[in-house]
Amino acid sequence: MQVSSFQPPPRTLMGPGPADVHPRVTAALARPTIGHLDPAFSAMMEELKGLLRYALRTDNPLTMPVSAPGSAGMETCFVNLVEPGDKVIVCSNGVFGGRMRENVVRCGGEAVVVADDWGRAVDPQKLEDALKAHPDAKLVACVHAETSTGACSDVKTLVELAHRHDCLTIVDAVTALGGSPLEVDAWGIDAVYAGSQKCLSCTPGLAPVSFSERALAKVTSRSTPVQSWFLDLNLVLGYWQGNDGGSSKRSYHHTAPVNALYGLHEALVMLAEEGIEQSWERHHRNHLALRAGLETLGLELVVPEAERLPQLNAVAVPGGVDEAAVRARLLDTYDLEIGAGLGALAGKVWRIGLMGYSSRPENILLCLGALGSVLNDMGHQADTGAALSAAQSMLAR
Questions:
Q1: Mind listing the pLDDT tens digit for each residue in 245-263?
Q2: pTM for this structure?
Q3: Which SUPFAM superfamilies does the UniProt record give (predicted)?
């Protein structure tokens, strides 16, 4: 068999993730591998935890990246906090709320689903009604930035309601971290998980998590073992925190993805250099430019303006347009990836991401120009020049 090294085609990634990876991150990935218990690596781990606390706006000592993708960050939160028989209220307004429910069930818990329409934020009144109807609930789970729809929920209010009814909270911030305001401590979030491949401009494969002292007390006082050996915080903390809570006595748990952690460290260094508030503002500013161009092309965003994510834009497919054919043409002709709809929105929307290093003016103009050209070729009238001018005018502000 004759084989050769894989050479990926050059792509501009403007789907729901992964996003474009910054060159500084790819350079960091190529640095020499050292041992995962090497003192130099341990020092980097401590810096990495501090950088994550900055990004998440928290002082939680238990803040670290799980050595697996964002879905494992989700499982880390659920398997550690949900015991058999626990009642968990799950706010579901898209695919990832549904996955939260699945985690509760697999942990042996009882899931009470508070459902909202896809493309809308979670309704706090519905959550409050559910909390009153289920006074024995122990946890509330919700998605901050629903990647399947581009809707952003009011996590601060949802957490306040949960705490008012003595519930711990689990928050999905996979698409939110680095792109939308997220205040773990100020909002009182008990457990939060994210991903490395979206607004952090890093490669897929790592899942930042953070647990409050209140949540950690729940973990350490469980009456049943955590169902996952690999994700059991009671075990993994010996590696990430050390037996004495420091870096000097780390115990072996697993072989950490050393080079991937170099990449996340570099991504977080860049985020600190830019400033977290400035990153939020950049994502919002570029969203406004993209929106101006899309609307000039005659396209509509499906999420109401007050509930939209800046970094993930769900765009309604015009009538008579083959949405899959448009995506294929963009990829084949322009090396541009945008995402398809999922679940209830499958075939009805495109998902256009402006995350991390992908959130740049040149990407916005490429996307608008390419999309306008393809739509015109398919018989949908679109004024590409006017769309580009609208986006440039917004960027100039």
A1: 444 577 788 889 999 999 9
A2: 0.96
A3: PLP-dependent transferases
